[in-house]
Amino acid sequence: MTQYLISFNDGAMDHIPAEEMPDVGKASHTVVQEAVNAGVWVYGGGLERQQARIVATDGTVTDGPYPETREVIGGFSVVDVATREQALAWAAKMAAACRCAQEVRELMPDPETGAMIREAGSRG
């Protein structure tokens, strides 16, 4: 299986009237429950609208991307599926629920981290 990041930009849901947000939340949670039931949900959430911070390799902290730039993520989901087409199908469900376009990107596999997690779980 391969993990995919499905995300949308900060501000992508600004077109939705406040009184409709409870319906959007309910629709989003329905898709998440469907993904959980299908065994493909890994993790996800919305990000608070705030100034990000960048921590450099030397520990220096500076202001991060500004919210008005397109690089700021507003929310994300991670799914673990067999094919890119399946990831795109989940993104389509999320786009319909959230009423905004979703970006889909494959996450790089990291077998060493997977081994660390399995080892820690076996000591549990």
UniProtKB/TrEMBL annotation:
<feature type="domain" description="YCII-related">
    <location>
        <begin position="33"/>
        <end position="107"/>
    </location>
</feature>
<dbReference type="InterPro" id="IPR011008">
    <property type="entry name" value="Dimeric_a/b-barrel"/>
</dbReference>
<dbReference type="InterPro" id="IPR005545">
    <property type="entry name" value="YCII"/>
</dbReference>
<protein>
    <submittedName>
        <fullName>YciI family protein</fullName>
    </submittedName>
</protein>
<comment type="similarity">
    <text>Belongs to the YciI family.</text>
</comment>
<dbReference type="Pfam" id="PF03795">
    <property type="entry name" value="YCII"/>
</dbReference>
